[in-house]
Amino acid sequence: MKPSPHILVIRLSAMGDVAMTVPVLQRLVKTYPNIKLTVLTKPFFRPIFEELPQANIITADIKGKHKGFLGLWKLSRELASANIDAVADLHNVLRSKILRFFFFFFRIKSASINKGRKEKKELTKLSPKSIRPLKTTHQRYAEVFSKLGYFIDLSIPFQSTKHALPQLLKEELKQPRKWIGIAPFAAHSTKMYPLDLMEKVIAQLAESNAYEVLLFGGGKQEKAHLDSLERKYKHVLNLVGKLSFKEELQAVSNLDVMLSMDSGNGHLAAMYNVPVVTVWGATHPYAGFAPFQQPTENQLLPDLKKYPLLPTSIYGNKEVVGYEEVMRSISPEKIVATIEKVLR
What we know:
This protein is α/β, with parallel strands linked by helices.
């Protein structure tokens, strides 16, 4: 391999999985500073990879010129012309498999992530139940580079800096208070803390007069709900629809703590070394999706004695009768106490 090897990294979605690549790639380029890095992703995720100044970012137009088999063939030729030496497929879905198939004919070696589907299925099996921590997604990403000959030590702390504040936050938040980000939504209801209980968390934090609570989310219904909380409580600011995605990342980088579900916002915060408190429902951090380098005491679980079959799902898309209300066993007081412990 040439003195400055050129590695193509493929990770097209989803937001949390994309964010989890960043600390791994940071450690990669820190360990091997001669590596040239190109990242293939979706246009929306470009700001995430801009956290890696060493990386060249290429976006796939999967609904346009890169759509379908012929579109991927065109994309593979474009990428191969950039003198790629190796491909790290951190996604391993049909689209990236087809790209690797094309790269094989260009004599470009590749390695792909082992998602551990068998062991994850075993973890969520209802009976007999056996719970043990699996490899983290970050470790699985690092293993891909190990297959290519680049070993990464993820135990070493990574560097991150705060971004300049978006103008909105400069105008709205002028008092010297701690900033608490709260992202109360998730893709599936089994991963989402009940909104009535989340309001109690927000109310307790707002009443202290010591914090600014910044609300994150997306979509019209989510925005409407968060707008109502902003109107109801002091020191609560809903950011939905007010910032671009890049500006949201700038805001996240300035938080003192993030409260998140098992969802992408927790990984975005961890990307900036922001402490993350996560609330878990049907899923479990043992499946490997806990935010990077976050202590276990920040991962709040339901009552496992009352709900011994947990975890019942890896991604939250599987519901089990009788387990619809597992997150109600996590009290708002416990969440607030954990946040305040982190802030102290």
